[in-house]
Design brief:
By secondary structure, the protein is α/β, with parallel strands linked by helices. 42% of the residues lie in helices and 13% in strands. The protein starts with a helix and ends in a 6-residue tail after the last strand. Bound molecules: uridine-5'-diphosphate-glucuronic acid. The site of uridine-5'-diphosphate-glucuronic acid has 20 residues, from helix 9. Uridine-5'-diphosphate-glucuronic acid binds next to helix 9.
Length: 459
């Protein structure tokens, strides 16, 4: 919404949330306190805030004044009840639709921005229709559009400013034109695609499923490369130069994370089963299964290389965010890998330039311990089998005394580490496990360290 405000100075954008603390943070004069870390977002907010971009908790007033309302609430995977573990929890979408139905005035275009299962617009439409027909309410009418978001975290501002496409699904041509004219301020017309509501909703899930499928495909090939002596980077390059395949999303790693891929695929799986297509459901579910397998595989492999046990051993984890340039840890591969290592009794120093230690503790469901003395080696307590972790302030203190370094996020600073210095701080024989292919192998090996990286077999 901030980018819409930035690009369309004549459109007034009001972002509303019932959470006062969050709105205060959006209004904070210190732009480093914005609730979301996203490169370039602070500059966009600075340009537009107070001009035509406002943040407020006055939800009903903002709805009443609006010509268009974007529903952009969370739709996490249900944790209980019907469809638990797969279907999206739509309670907040429904609550929003009801609030819009109650507070809107005149004609209002309601835009689904949240990622939703196919045919959710139907539910939103019925709630709004009931309000249109209600005799005791003032005259009000609605059009519903689906306008899914394709931005990726870390590159959100450039994805929004130069999108591959904008997708608008709907039935009412005037409403579609109205939304298209907002995007038309900065997006070329041929990149604004118009579809029916259901195609638009399904395209969002399908785009994420295809992207995630590429990652599971290349990770499955990475395992085969390790077993056969091939190198996944060479294979990715070789296949990616085929213009029909293309080079993007072929980076093998610790599996995909983030709030969307797994959730959207599971949603697709649920829909397929619901519509009587169990084989199609199994096909897509395999993408998630391979992803989970890859994460357990990496943890297992670390244990194996460290003489079959990490109990009491000090390991440095570099990177906890689900990818670089974000502080987001939702479904981060690091969570599953670190939990497996903790189950094996490892002592983990965790470093991430952006993720707060409190967030790591929440993700691991384990409070941080105090850092043990790096020079004393495994203590009797650490050999008891109880895994512990602590936040490392810098890379050197994470690595000091460690038997292994495990790189799980591709932060740029991890590409430029001085392994001759870091290696001398470690307990020998020491290992570097590079799950993101950010390290130059020769630099690690000439520092006398053992080295593993994803998808590299021994020829
Ligand atoms: C993803 C999609 O890329 C966006 O188009 C979509 O709008 C968004 O989900 C969403 O539905 O909200 P995002 O989750 O922010 O965006 O991040 P991606 O850059 O797609 O990365 C997802 C995961 O895949 C990360 O863990 C990343 O490290 C991993 N990945 C990505 C790989 O392991 N290999 C690759 O080659 C690419």
């Amino acid at each position: 919404m901030a980018v819409i405000a930035d690009q369309c100075p004549d459109v007034q954008v009001t972002v509303v949330d019932i959470n006062q603390t969050r709105i205060n943070a959006w209004n904070d004069s210190d732009l480093s306190k914005l609730p979301v870390y996203e490169p370039g977002l602070d500059a966009v907010v600075q340009r537009a805030r107070g001009r035509n971009l406002f943040f407020s908790t006055a939800v009903d007033e903002a709805i009443a004044a609006a010509d268009m309302v974007f529903i952009s609430v969370n739709t996490p995977t249900k944790t209980k009840g019907l469809g638990a573990g797969q279907a999206s929890d739509l309670r907040w979408v429904e609550a929003c639709a009801r609030q819009v139905a109650q507070s809107a005035q005149g004609h209002t275009i309601v835009v689904e921005k949240s990622t939703l299962p196919v045919r959710t617009a139907e539910a939103v439409k019925s709630i709004l229709l009931a309000a249109e027909q209600s005799a005791d309410s003032p005259q009000r009418t609605f059009s519903v559009l689906s306008n899914p978001e394709f931005l990726a975290e870390g590159t959100a501002i450039q994805d929004l400013e130069l999108p591959d496409r904008v997708l608008i699904g709907g039935e009412n041509l005037e409403a579609i034109d109205a939304l298209a004219s907002v995007y038309g301020e900065w997006v070329p017309q041929d990149r604004i695609l118009r579809t029916n509501l259901w195609s638009s909703e399904l395209s969002k899930l399908t785009a994420n499923a295809f992207l995630a499928q590429r990652i599971s495909s290349i990770n499955s090939v990475a395992a085969l490369c390790e077993a056969t002596g091939a190198d996944v980077r060479e294979v990715a390059k070789a296949i990616g130069t085929d213009s029909r395949i293309g080079p993007k999303f072929l980076q093998a790693g610790p599996g995909f994370g983030g709030s969307c891929f797994q959730k959207d695929i599971l949603n697709l799986v649920y829909l397929c089963r619901h519509f009587g297509l169990p084989d199609v459901a199994d096909y897509w579910e395999a993408v998630v299964k391979v992803n989970t397998w890859q994460q357990h595989r990496i943890a297992r492999m670390v244990v194996q290389k460290l003489f079959g046990t990490v109990t009491g051993k000090r390991l440095a984890i570099l990177g906890f965010a689900f990818k670089a340039d974000t502080n987001d840890t939702r479904e981060a591969p690091a969570i599953r890998i670190v939990k497996d290592l903790l189950d094996e009794g490892a002592q983990l120093a965790i470093h991430d330039p952006k993720v707060e230690p409190e967030q790591i503790a929440r993700d691991l469901k384990l409070p941080a311990s105090t850092a043990p003395d790096a020079d004393s080696g495994p203590t009797r307590a650490s050999l008891s089998g109880e895994g512990t972790w602590w936040p490392a302030e810098d890379i050197a203190s994470a690595v000091k005394g460690a038997d292994a370094v495990i790189i799980l996020t591709e932060w740029s600073q991890y590409r430029a580490l001085d392994w001759s210095v870091l290696g001398s701080l470690m307990r020998q024989p020491a290992w570097v496990f590079d799950a993101r292919s950010v390290v130059t192998p020769a630099e690690v090996e000439s520092a006398g360290l053992n080295f593993w990286r994803v998808g590299e077999g021994q020829p």
